[in-house]
Amino acid sequence: MAVQFDSTEQFRAVIDGVMALMSEDPEMGPKLRDADVPQRFEFDDMDLVVNARAARQGEQGNLHWEWTDDVDWEPKVKLTMSSEVANRYFQGKENVPVAIARRRIKAGGDVKSALALIPITKPVYALYRSMLEADYPQLVVK
């Protein structure tokens, strides 16, 4: 049975939460900032887009993201997926290369750079699942 978000607002809150987890993590955050791979995520079933990049000098945290395409940077990687696939990915339940091959994730741009981030972001799986278990238990994928 598919796990679904209650609303676009809930989805945004959850994705804001996972982005903050990655940005604030003492291991992941600095590595993601140093990798500096601007990305555009489109969640086609929610009609939402979030653009993310490394934080710049003077900005708080290691990552900066905005829920718009009206940003002052160009993404190196563009990924389109459903909210369900995103939720599965952040729980470690969706293999990105397989999802790309099966078109559950449509990828464009420098996909190799995006795939190189996967080992850096692996710790987010447990952090994300803990966040879901505490705040959104209905979203945990069994």
Task: Describe the overall structure.
It is a single chain. With 142 residues, this protein is α+β, with helices and mostly antiparallel strands. It has a single domain (8-135), classed as 2-Layer Sandwich (Nonspecific Lipid-transfer Protein, Chain A). The chain is built from 7 helices and 5 strands, in the order ααββββααβααα. It has a 5-stranded mixed beta sheet. β1 (39-43) and β2 (48-54) form a beta hairpin. α1 packs across α2 and α1 crosses α7 (124-135). The radius of gyration is 14 Å and the shape is globular. The protein starts with 7 loop residues before the first helix and ends in a 7-residue tail after the last helix.
- Any idea of the CATH topology? Nonspecific Lipid-transfer Protein, Chain A
H/I helix tally: 7
Poorly predicted runs: none
Q: Order of strands side by side in the largest beta sheet?
A: 3-2-1-4-5
Shape: globular
- What structural category arises from helix and sheet content? alpha+beta
The number of strands is 5
Helix content: 40-55%
CATH superfamily: SCP2 sterol-binding domain
Domains counted in the coordinates: how many?
A: 1
**Helix and strand succession?**
HHEEEEHHEHHH
Question: Cα-atom Rg, whole angstroms?
Answer: 14 Å
Overall pLDDT level: 95
CATH architecture heading: 2-Layer Sandwich
Query: What does the main sheet amount to?
Result: 5 strands, mixed
Distance between the termini: 10 Å
Would you state the CATH class?
Alpha Beta
Beta fraction: 15-25%
